[in-house]
Each structure stands twice: as C-alpha cells, then as structure tokens.
Design goal:
The complex is a heterodimer of chains A (253) and B (415).
Chain A lengths: L4 E12 L2 E12 L3 E5 L6 H9 L5 E9 L2 E2 L5 H7 L1 E4 L6 E5 H15 L7 H14 L10 E2 L5 H15 L3 E5 L7 H13 L6 E6 L12 E6 L2 E6 L2 H9 L1 H7 L1
Parallel strand pairs in A: 3-10, 3-11, 6-9, 9-10
Antiparallel strand pairs in A: 1-2, 1-4, 4-5, 7-8, 11-12
Chain B lengths: L15 H17 L22 E3 L18 E6 L2 E3 L9 E5 H7 L1 H4 L12 H8 L5 E5 L9 E7 L5 E12 L4 E10 L7 E11 L4 E8 L6 E10 L4 E8 L4 E10 L5 E10 L4 E10 L5 E10 L4 E10 L7 E10 L5 E10 L5 E9 L3 H8 L5 H17 L5 H10 L2
Parallel strand pairs in B: 1-7, 2-6, 5-7, 6-8, 7-9, 8-10, 9-11, 10-12, 11-13, 12-14, 13-15, 14-16, 15-17, 16-18, 17-19, 18-20
Antiparallel strand pairs in B: 2-3, 4-5
Helix pairs in contact in B: 1-4, 5-6
The chains are: A alpha/beta (253), B alpha/beta (415).
Bound molecules: adenosine-5'-diphosphate (ADP) and magnesium ion.
C-alpha cells in the first residue's frame, strides 16, 4: 500500500525571542498514522505545535513544512484550520463573554464553507454538539457558558476534544492532552480521541509521560530533545524511555 | 457671530415669554461662542469644524417625508425629518399626549413653565443655542398611573440634500406619578455620507414620584456630522431613570446626561457604549447630582476605539450634604484597537455627605492576542474573531438594557 504524506517537516529551525529552540527538525506523517512526540519540559514541543498552527511570535529561520503538498508556512492560522489542522492546546484560552456555542458555530461554519458544504443552522448545529458532547460526558449546560471561563482542567480538555470531534480535522496535534487530567478524565478524553482515529486522519500526540500512550496507542514514537528528533521507533520506545529517562537519549546524539 | 447664529423669524416671536428666552439663548451663545480647548468642559472634544459660516437652520418644509424605519420590535413610531417633527407620518398612541412643543408653549403655559431656564446658562452653550431657536421638538406627557408597555420610538432621519443644516430639537418629556414608559431614540441619515449638519438636541425629562422612564438611544449620524445632545433629567421621590446610549456615528458627538436625584430614593442608571473608527470624536459626559437621601446611581460605559479616533468620558458624581445613605458607582472601560486610537477620561467625585457608597474606575486595554489566535486556530477569520471579541467586550454594558428586544437591536448596531 502506498502511503500519502500529509505533513512533511524538513530541516526546520526556529527561534523565539532570538533563542534557538528548534534545530533541524525532520518528520513526515502519512495519512492515517498516529505519531507520538516525547520530550522533556522545555524541549520545544509547544513551540513546534504553535509553529504548525501559525501562531505569531516564532521565527522560522530555515527549513520547510508542507501540508497536503502545500507550503504551510505561507498560510494564515485560519487557512490552516480550514485545510484540516487542529491543535488541542496545552493551555486552552479563556474567552469571557463568548459562549461556546457562538464560538464553535462560527468555527464549524467557516470550515464547512471552505469545504463547499452548506452552513449549519442553529438547530442542526446544537443537535450535533449535544450528541458529541454526550459521548464525552460533557454537561449540556457547558456549551452555554463562556469559552473555558471557570472550566476545570478536565473540562477544558474535554472541550478541546469536543471541538476536535465537531471540526473533524485531517490532522490533529494533541499538546499534552493528559496534563491536569485524573485517570477517569484521561480515559474519557482518550476514548474520544480514539473514536476519531480512522484510516485517513493523522495525529501527532505530544506528551511528556508515557502514561497517555497506554490509552492512545501510537504507530510511531519519536524522542525529541534539544530541538530535534534523537530517536524514532515503535510504541516500545516509549517504554524504554520511561525506564532510561531522557538523559540517556540526549547523550546518544 | 458664527454661522450658527442667524436672524430669522420664528413662529411665536410675538409671545413675550418666548421672545425673551430666545433672546437670552441667543445672547448667551453669542457671548460664549463655540467652545474651544480652553473651556474645561470641552477640552478633549474639539469643535473646529463648526466654525464654517454656511449653516442653514432647518425649518419646516412642504413635502418633507422620511422613509419608514424598520425596527425589530413593536413601537409607536414618531418621525422627525431633518429635526422637524412629522405628525402626519407618526403613529400617535392613545392615552399619551404628544404635541409639537411650540403648541405647548403657545397654548399650555402650565407646561411651558417646565422649560428650564438653567439651560440658557453659559455652561451649556449648545442648549443656549437650542433655546435661541426654540420651536421644533415635541412634548410627551404621560398621565399618572399608566404603564405604557410599547416603546415610543423617536426616529430622527436626516437627509441634508447638500446643505449644512443646523437642526435644533427640544423635547419636553413628563412622566407623571406612578407611570412608566420606554423611549427609544434612533438617529440616522440617508443620502450623501459626507453631508455636514449639526443635530443639536435637548431632552428635558421630568420623572415624578414612583414613576419610571427607560430611555434608549442609537446615534448613527453621517460621518461628517456633529451630534450634540443634552439630556436634562429631573427625578422625584422613588422615581427612576434608566438609560443606555450607543454612539457610533458622526465626526464629533457628545451625549451629555445630567440627572438630578432630587428626592429620597430617586435612582438612575446611565449606561452606554461607543464604537468608532476614522477620525471621529465620541464623547460621553455625565453629571449625576445626588441631592437627597437614599438615592442611587450606576454608570457603566464601554468604548471600542479604532483608527485615529478619540473616545472621551467625563463623568461626575456629586453628593450633596443632605444626600446621606446614597450610592453612586461609575465605571468606564475602553478597548483600543490601534496605536493611534485615544481615550481621554475625566472622572470627578464631589462628596459632601457622610455614610455614602461611592466608587469610580476606568481601564483601557487591547484585544487579546491569545484569544484571537485561539479563535483563528479553529478556522474563524481574523475579522470575525475581532468582531466576536468586541461584541463580548460590550456585552455586559448592553445587557443592562431591561428590554430584551431593544438590547438585541442595539447589539446588532454595535459593530
Ligand atoms: N514567548 C516565549 N518567549 C521566550 N521564550 C520562550 C517563549 N515560548 C517558549 N519559550 C522557551 O522556549 C523553550 C521551549 O518551550 P516550549 O515549546 O513551551 O517547550 P515544551 O512544550 O517542550 O515544554 C523553553 O525554553 C521556553 O522557555
Ligand atoms: Mg508544552
């Protein structure tokens, strides 16, 4: 079976505030694949996810990123989202005064419009969100509240997962999806993520700990340290890492 | 003399009372002139453009007809065209007396005594100018113990047809004991967007014992226009005045609200929002005078300023020595969308009584980049994301409006 590359990162170097964070990063993710990226705190994992989504404040000094064959770096954040990139954020943002329904309806319809699909009316939209929300054990009232305002850590992550379920991206980045979750919430979120796995949708699961990978089982595992991938393997690499610690890998480079 | 003062003859000049106050108004305005930055009350809001000498006073004309205005709520519609009341087009409710002001001045001396001579003082140059031409405007009289559920919508439509119009409007509104009503003002224009005119409006409002008036307003004048409004509100025992003004149009606009809480338990809510771009100046000036015990006032004003525009807020709370156990709060907040946007804020508290609760605050900020990115990363365009954040910013102020349909209408315009 020939594989179709979805995301191709080549020799990426990037800085934040004149500080070199990403130093020659290479990774290709094909359709349907789930990759785990593991690295210690401060390695630059969130930096990478933010660059993939087009957040400002990061300077790409060399290298390229292609998504579905297109130059990703030339696209605005909203164009990337409409093309099918979704970032499940490590620290979801609170937006006082904007209800989840309003926010999500704008997002869904912007993406549907881009895909040439008819926009959903309020009834259809609410029905869809309710159904998806129920699967994630979300309180029906939550979608009436302002985005992430007063949400617990677990609720924030569930809302991120709900957004992913509703927006149906081709490529999802999960940045520390497990941080701040107790074991029950972790199971619910993982189930939500696993339900979205299919032959086409690809994922990059970023995590500090191996624990999450017991629930979301990756096809590939990469160890990320000092701005680049230092080792790649299958899911067993995560276990090896858990034993040896990051120090053992960083020395290997 | 400026182009704003002219010798014209108006109906009723033969009535000594009317002739005298018109002359007083003229003399006061002639001596003060158009205020400059040296005038403390006008130091942030410049009126240079009013020095043009080709103003034409808007007078009743034949075949003036305003377009029908669509409102998304049921209302008695009262039309003004270029500041001139159009009774033929207006839907006048039963049980409420609505008359042209000039008719009241000529034939109902008991009501004309309500016209406040303080309005001709030097500190109110534009109401002096307004009185110099006292003629246009209406008298609204709501009898005691009636509740008018359907709002009275005062629809002010301007189409200058190439002239620099001076539109003086003077309304006298009396809500008698234990009555309640809602008044909506809607100011808009048609035709040439660059038309220049000065809408110079005075609303004198009397709220009697246990009565309540809700007063909601949208100012969306042409972008070269001036809009100067003074709401002079007198509230008796346990009466309440509840207002909201959205200002978004005009080159220079001031909505000034002075409330006299004259008797115990009188209360006022003076809320508002403004949203602006270009080179406009939008000014909100308030002066709440607590003159008796147990009176309360609350003010929440929120602004969104883009381009090279300037927002001005001057808010005063005065608490007289006898006004014990009163409460006065004031909060002004502005969102600056560009580096060249500006807000000037002047809060003033004058507290002469003990045992009062009084607070004021002001803050300004920018759109939050993290929030914008979060929305855009979900596919929402930058423009839509900004609009959503702006609407969210103004939401708590607009939500103070008690009538849901009117609040929804104002939200639609607050963009
Ligand atoms: N806005 C910023 N300004 C300065 N330094 C930053 C900024 N964002 C990230 N960094 C630095 O970049 C490095 C990588 O951060 P991050 O990508 O958040 O790491 P990780 O997600 O792997 O924990 C850290 O040393 C961090 O301090
Ligand atoms: Mg991180």
């Amino acid at each position: 079976m020939t594989k179709t590359p979805l995301l191709e990162i080549e020799d990426l170097c990037a800085r934040v505030c004149d500080k070199e964070i990403i130093k020659g990063f290479n990774l290709t993710i094909n359709e349907g694949e789930v990759h785990a990226l593991m690295g210690p705190n401060g390695a630059g994992k969130s930096t990478l996810s933010n660059i993939l989504c087009g957040k400002s404040g990061y300077e790409v000094t060399s290298g390229s990123i292609r998504f579905k064959g297109q130059d990703l770096l030339a696209m605005s954040p909203e164009e990337r989202a409409r093309e099918g990139i979704f970032l499940c954020m490590q620290y979801p943002v609170e937006i006082p005064g904007v209800p989840v329904t309003t926010f999500l309806k704008h997002a869904v319809n912007a993406i549907r419009k881009h895909r040439g699909e008819p926009e959903l009316d309020t009834m259809e939209f609410v029905k869809m969100v309710r159904e998806e929300g129920k699967k994630l054990g979300l309180d029906a009232d939550m979608i009436k509240r302002a985005v992430n305002v007063g949400f617990s850590g677990g609720e924030k992550k569930r809302l991120e997962t709900l957004q992913m379920a509703v927006l149906k991206p081709d490529f999802a980045i999960l940045d520390e999806a497990d941080s701040g979750l107790d074991i029950d919430a972790l199971k619910v979120v993982s189930e939500g993520v696993n339900a979205l796995r299919n032959g086409k949708r690809a994922m990059l699961v970023i995590t500090h700990y191996q624990r999450l990978l017991n629930y979301i089982i990756p096809d590939f595992v990469h160890v990320y340290a000092d701005g680049r991938i230092v080792k790649s393997g299958d899911k067993n690499l995560a276990l090896e890492l858990e034993e040896k610690g990051y120090a053992g890998f960083v020395r290997e480079k | 003399m400026t182009g704003l003062l002219q010798h014209i003859s108006l109906p009723g000049d033969e009535i000594p009372w009317l002739h005298e106050i018109r002359t007083n108004g003229k003399n006061v305005f002639a001596s003060v002139g158009i205020p400059t930055a040296k005038n403390e009350a006008w130091k942030y809001t410049r009126l240079r453009e009013l020095n043009a000498d080709d103003f034409v006073i808007s007078l009743p004309q034949q075949n003036l007809s305003a377009p029908q205005a669509e409102l998304p709520f049921d209302a008695y519609k009262i039309y003004f065209e270029n500041g001139i009341f159009n009774p033929a087009m207006s839907e006048l409710p039963q049980g409420i007396e609505i008359l042209p002001l000039i008719e009241v001045i000529m034939f109902h001396p008991q009501y004309r005594q309500l016209i406040n001579t303080q309005l001709i003082e030097k500190r109110f140059p534009f109401s002096a100018l307004n009185v110099a031409y006292l003629n246009e405007g209406i008298f609204i009289h709501i009898d005691s113990r009636v509740e008018i559920k359907k709002p009275l919508a005062l629809i002010y439509h301007t189409d200058t047809r190439g002239q620099n119009l001076l539109c003086n409007i003077h309304n006298l509104i009396v809500v008698e004991e234990a009555s309640s009503a809602k008044i909506v003002e809607f100011h808009y224009y048609n035709g040439e967007v660059k038309s220049r005119y000065l809408a110079n409006i005075v609303n004198e409002i009397y709220i009697r014992r246990n009565a309540k008036l809700c007063h909601y307003k949208i100012q969306n004048e042409a972008f070269k226009a001036h809009h100067l409004a003074l709401n002079y509100v007198d509230v008796a025992e346990n009466g309440s005045y509840n207002s909201f003004c959205l200002q978004k149009g005009a080159d220079v606009s001031r909505n000034e609200t002075r409330v006299l809480l004259k008797e115990p338990k009188a209360s006022a809510e003076v809320n508002g929002a403004y949203i602006m771009n270009g080179w406009a100046t939008i000014d909100t000036t308030t002066d709440i005078e607590h003159l008796s015990s147990c009176t309360t006032s609350h003010q929440l004003i929120k602004g969104v300023v883009g381009g090279d525009a300037k927002g001005v807020f001057q808010g005063k709370i005065h608490i007289a020595p006898e006004a014990i156990q009163t409460e006065g709060t004031q909060l002004h907040k502005a969102l600056l969308l560009t580096d060249t946007a500006e807000v000037d804020v002047k809060p003033e508290l004058e507290i002469f009584a003990d045992d009062v609760k009084c607070s004021h605050g002001a803050a300004s900020g920018e759109l939050d980049e993290e929030q914008l990115f979060y929305m855009r990363s979900r596919g929402i365009s930058e423009e839509d994301a900004r609009q959503l954040l702006i609407a969210a910013y103004l939401d708590d102020a607009i939500s103070k409006i008690e009538d849901e349909k009117i609040a929804a209408w104002i939200k639609l315009w607050a963009k």
